């Protein structure tokens, strides 16, 4: 059974003579689709298996849904429609050995082509040869070689095979260029480890929190609070509130009270005050 969400190949959907088809641009194959299969593919990258089934039940019988999943599973085994996924433990344990054995990674760098397999290979020092029209990102530009190619949005990819063959032959031989590419590839992997990425994400959140806190302090300093009663025209009732002078807005009473108390009291004292008022039923 397929495990969703699942990334798809670059697919082109079209209809002909009343039938639906998907052209797998990465495999140069055309697959006929049932209506249920087509709807599953539209949801495949964003929904789980359970969510897809729940959505399809509004339009299809259970038998049609089951047949669609079975057919898509068969197509995946043929390497069609879906990107390769290393989800099981056995495959994951073999991948490092596979990457270490690579001398070179060749791939067409067209929009929509996933770079994950290339980046993982680079982590083991395997240079790349990219067939591309637009070049490679600056971060990975020195970790391999580019063969300028051309392609149109219909999926026609034109590669100068003589140039590609010569480039591959050059990088397969021991040479200074190959050593430099391997060093850059390994350096890139060391620079963007999961730990470092996580540290940068945490730093972003911490900086964002600090900026919010600073903005709050600036607003508090320039906008003094006035405790008052606020009339709600919708319900016709009044309630205790706090008006922030200078900013033309009302604040929650509890927030305003905590802010005023914090100027001369400790957190423990503020907590005691709130417990007292809650005990009297004056605060929610």
Keywords:
three-stranded antiparallel beta sheet; 284 residues; alpha+beta; extended; single chain; 10 helices; 48% helix; three-stranded parallel beta sheet; 19% strand
Verbal overview:
A hairpin with a 4-residue loop joins strand 9 and strand 10. The chain has helices at 35-43, 49-56, 62-77, 89-101, 116-123, 161-172, 176-191, 194-222, 253-262, 267-280; strands at residues 11-16, 19-24, 29-33, 105-108, 128-132, 144-148, 150-151, 157-158, 225-232, 237-244, 249-251. It is built from ten helices and eleven strands. The protein has a three-stranded antiparallel β-sheet with strand order 1-2-3. Helix 5 crosses helix 7 (176-191). The longest helix is centred in the last third of the chain and has 29 residues, at 194-222. It is extended. It has 284 residues and is of the alpha+beta class.
Mean pLDDT: 81
Q: State Rg.
A: 30 Å
Q: What is the strand content?
A: 15-25%
Query: How do the strands line up in the largest sheet?
Result: 1-2-3
Q: Which structural class is indicated by helix and strand composition?
A: alpha+beta
Q: Biggest sheet: strands, sense, closure?
A: 3 strands, antiparallel
Residues in helix, %: 40-55%
Low-confidence stretches: none
Distance between the termini: 51 Å
Please give the count of helices: 10
Order of helices and strands: EEEHHHHEHEEEEHHHEEEHH
The number of distinct β-strands equals 11
**Per the principal axes of the C-alpha atoms, what is the gross shape?**
extended
């Amino acid at each position: 059974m397929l495990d969703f969400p699942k990334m798809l190949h670059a697919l082109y959907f079209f209809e002909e003579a009343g039938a639906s088809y998907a052209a797998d641009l990465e495999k140069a194959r055309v697959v006929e689709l049932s209506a249920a299969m087509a709807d599953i593919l539209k949801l495949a990258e964003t929904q789980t298996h359970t969510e897809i089934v729940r959505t399809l039940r509004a339009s299809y019988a259970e038998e049609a849904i089951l047949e669609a999943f079975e057919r898509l599973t068969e197509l995946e085994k043929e390497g069609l429609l879906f990107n390769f996924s290393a989800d099981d433990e056995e495959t994951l344990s073999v991948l490092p050995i596979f990457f270490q054995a690579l001398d070179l990674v060749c791939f067409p760098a067209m929009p929509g082509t996933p770079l994950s397999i290339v980046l993982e290979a680079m982590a083991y020092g395997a240079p790349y040869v990219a067939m591309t029209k637009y070049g490679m990102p600056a971060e990975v530009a020195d970790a391999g070689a580019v063969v300028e190619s051309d392609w149109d949005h219909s999926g026609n990819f034109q590669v100068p095979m003589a140039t590609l063959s010569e480039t591959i032959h050059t990088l397969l031989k021991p040479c200074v260029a190959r050593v430099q590419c391997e060093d850059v590839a390994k350096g890139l992997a060391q620079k963007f480890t999961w730990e470092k990425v996580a540290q940068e994400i945490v730093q972003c959140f911490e900086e964002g929190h600090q900026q919010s806190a600073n903005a709050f302090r600036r607003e508090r300093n320039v906008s003094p609070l006035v405790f008052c009663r606020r009339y709600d025209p919708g319900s016709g009732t009044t309630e205790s509130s706090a008006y922030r002078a200078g900013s033309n807005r009302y604040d929650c009473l509890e927030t305003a009270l905590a802010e005023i108390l914090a100027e001369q009291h400790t957190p423990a004292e503020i907590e005691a005050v709130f417990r007292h008022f809650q005990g009297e039923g004056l605060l929610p």
